[in-house]
Amino acid sequence: MSFPYTEEMMESVKKVEATRAARMAAEPRRMTAEEKDALLEQYHPDYNLSSFAEIIVGPNKGEKAPKELVELLQAKSRVQGMTLDLAHPDYDVDVLVIGGSGASAAIEAHEAGANVMIVTKLRIGDANTMMAEGGIQAADKENDSPAQHYLDVMGGGHFANVPELVEKLVMDGPECIKWLNDLGVLFDKDKDGNMITTHGGGTSRKRMHAAADYSGAEIMRVLRDEVQNRKIPVVDFTSAIEIIKDTEGKAAGAVLQNMETGEILIARAKCVIIATGGAGRLHYQGFPTSNHYGATADGLVLAYRAGARLLYQDTLQYHPTGVAFPSQIYGALVTEKVRSMGAQFVNVNGEAFMHPLETRDVAASGVIREVARGNGIHTPLRDGIWLDSPMIDAIHGEGTLEKRLPGMLRMYLRYDIDMRKVPIVIYPTLHYQNGGVRVSVNGMSDVENLYVAGEAAGGVHGRNRLMGNSLLDVIVFGRNAGQEAGKQFKNVTLSDLTLEHVDSFEKECEAAGIHTDEVSPKILPDYRRKK
After folding, report:
1. Phi, psi of 320, deg, nearest 5
2. Measured between alpha carbons, how far is 160 from 156 in angstroms, rounded to an integer?
């Protein structure tokens, strides 16, 4: 096969091949805690203070957040100037789920007897959940325990995690794997039917359950089928543009906008669950992203304007292995499973400069540092670092990569790059919103009856997330929010619906001297060429 690498790149490939045997015999050492702290402070994007701004209004007044997020939090509401008939809603349900990633919440609320509806800006399944590749963590093996998982999560999050949320994450993990398996998720299993598990960065045990390298897609397939089997209505291509409250301050529904026609609709609900995912399409600090097209921090904006406090809104995860070449898939995710199966970070000189399974924030910072030192691979698009993918078959036997990473292999073969034969070029990509809306263990935000689950919620992962805990998070806390809302709605009596909180927020912005033409939520990114 003729690879699309430049002559200069191929010269570097030869150096990688020449050192492979020696590198397989002696794995790079782990960094000390002091080395990690120094590396993060100097090279991690979260420490680039020039890219942050102060929040001037609202519950998090005085705190910092990425400039792009602050602009949206303090922008004008899309409902400003509209005359809306809140007294005659187009939809009237017990539980409204905003975002397709909330499928597990919808299923559990429905199981509890609630009249449930899902509204999603694209199609159900067009979400970061669908794009998760490597797997889902859970401590369900004999040599593991939720306590060990807890320690890994807390350490990975720099002990900034909310302990009660981490406890629920790890304690409910094994049951969630069983729930998904019973629903029909096709997890990787051995010939005896036992789950195959692998390591992830920062894990002390092999607890990563996967479905090849399309774990999120497989989980979403099954949840989507269950939603359809239960005949839970899904209103797709429709965005929530504002949370509605009642006159007592409880969440009471949402203003919706049809993405195709622009029609405005009113949904009344006794409980609202936000599961809108992350913010990668805001492209903080100009980074590419692995996120789906609709990841524009809508849930944070909606909850914040309704009065919910955010937590760790200033910390993002830059996945260390995003595609740096070719340009057609720039920023796409190269799953951590590639490294968990043995592939190493290697610089232009064929040197392994970092252990392949450091936590994601440390690994991303290490890649950024190595490129800054001039040891990157120069490509027509940007400098990056080799991920030595041929090591996988060299370690585990020919055919392993094709069997365990079929999606990755196909993605690269589409551009004439066979990752079984040559290493691939990577650089960090904006991947995950570590922070989000502050929630209690029952999933409720500071606003009564407004629940938040998955990537839109903050606190579970502290200031850095471990691989496999995002799929676990959205299932554990999605189910939890659905169960809690399924109990709560039975005791809810709504008073008159109102958007007074939106007017109050607008007045607060005016009093603070904020004048902007920006409107939020953003809904979709704008990639049109600017003059």
Report:
1. -65, -25
2. 9
Residue 2 has pLDDT above 70, yes or no: no
Residue 530 above 80 pLDDT? no
Rounded to whole angstroms, how far apart are CA atoms 259 and 493? 31
| Tens-digit pLDDT profile for residues 116-174 | 999 999 988 888 888 888 899 999 999 999 999 999 999 999 999 999 999 999 999 99
pLDDT at 1 over 70: no
**Three-class secondary structure of residue 278 per DSSP:** coil
**pLDDT by residue (tens digit) across 243-281?**
999 999 999 999 999 999 999 999 999 999 999 999 999
Phi then psi for 136, rounded to 5 degrees? -130, 130
Strands 450-452 and 264-274: parallel
Gap between the Cα atoms of 80 and 310, Å rounded? 23
Confidence at 415, pLDDT banded by 50, 70, 90? very high
Tens digits of per-residue pLDDT, 180-199? 999 999 999 999 999 999 88
Determine the residue type at 191: K
In three-state form (DSSP H/G/I as H, E/B as E, the rest C), the secondary structure along 291-331 is: CCCCCCCHHHHHHHHCCCCEECCCCEEEEEEEECCCHHHCC
Q: Which residues are the active-site residues?
A: 319, 339
Q: What is the mean pLDDT of residues 27-44?
A: 94
Question: d(Cα 364, Cα 318) in Å, to the nearest integer?
Answer: 6
Pairing of strands 316-323, 238-246: unpaired
End-to-end CA distance of the chain: 41
| Alpha-carbon radius of gyration of the chain | 23
pLDDT of the residue at 84? 96
What pLDDT score was predicted for residue 218? 96
Say which amino acid occupies 221: R
Give yes or no for a cis peptide into 521 (omega within 30° of 0).
yes
**Helix, strand, coil shares of the chain as percentages rounded to 5?**
35, 20, 45
How high is the pLDDT of residue 528?
Answer: 86
**DSSP letter assigned to residue 359:** -
Count CA atoms closer than 13 A to 277's CA, side-chain side.
30
Whole-angstrom distance, CA of residue 330 vs CA of residue 325: 6
Task: Tell me the residue type at 481.
Answer: A
Helices 163-183 & 215-229 angle (0-180, nearest 10): 70
Q: β-strand 197-198 against 208-209: which pairing, if any?
A: antiparallel
Decide: residue 41, CB within 10 A, 0-12 exposed, 13-18 middle, 19+ buried: exposed
Please confirm whether the linkage preceding 4 is cis (ω < 30° from 0).
Answer: no
- Dihedral sign computed on CA atoms, order 55, 460, 292, 338: positive
- Give the whole-angstrom CA distance, residue 389 versus residue 418: 10
